Amino acid sequence: MGRRMTVFLIAVFVLAAGALAFDRLPPAIPASAGSTAIARVTLAADPPGAIAGECLNRLTWRSGWADLCWQASRVNDGDAEKDYYIIRLYGSFAGLRWLDVRSDFVGEPGDGVFDGWPTGTFTGPCRDASVDMMIPFQPIGTETLCGRLTAGADAGPGSSWSQRVTWTCERCLLPDDATRAVGMYAEVGVAEGALPAWDLFADGGS
Fold it and tell me: What pLDDT does 183 receive?
């Protein structure tokens, strides 16, 4: 094999190795991601178990998109001092390298009562997971978790009282055209008779 061919093969190998390494780097998410609310959810007076909801207009980022909906309901809690509400933000997306979705409770929960799902880091293929919340004391359904997903709540004095999920592609050379599901829940306690509100945020990059 000639010297020119050897140099060519080495160059191809280096480029391939570099592309493979880049392919496995997580995409960079701008610090300003998700800084503008896409919707505000304000509930009317609903009896326990009543459900309100709406699907938002499709969000697009270059070649990527996300279709998101929300559902909110009051939980039959049996608490004489507080009412409990759950909001679910869910939908599907494709053509992205990252997606960041968040719900911020407007105001302060009663007695700091706040819970969110999911929490933690999830990798690998999409799979169904049971949704467990503070109230009711049993699973309220299943959602699909797709890696790589990081999720958690910002709750406590001085916090934004938010639940957030961030998906990033695990192989990131190009935007992923596969359609994936995204879903999360947040639960708050409010003073008896008060009506909750949330600001919803979503941002993505392709």
Answer: 97
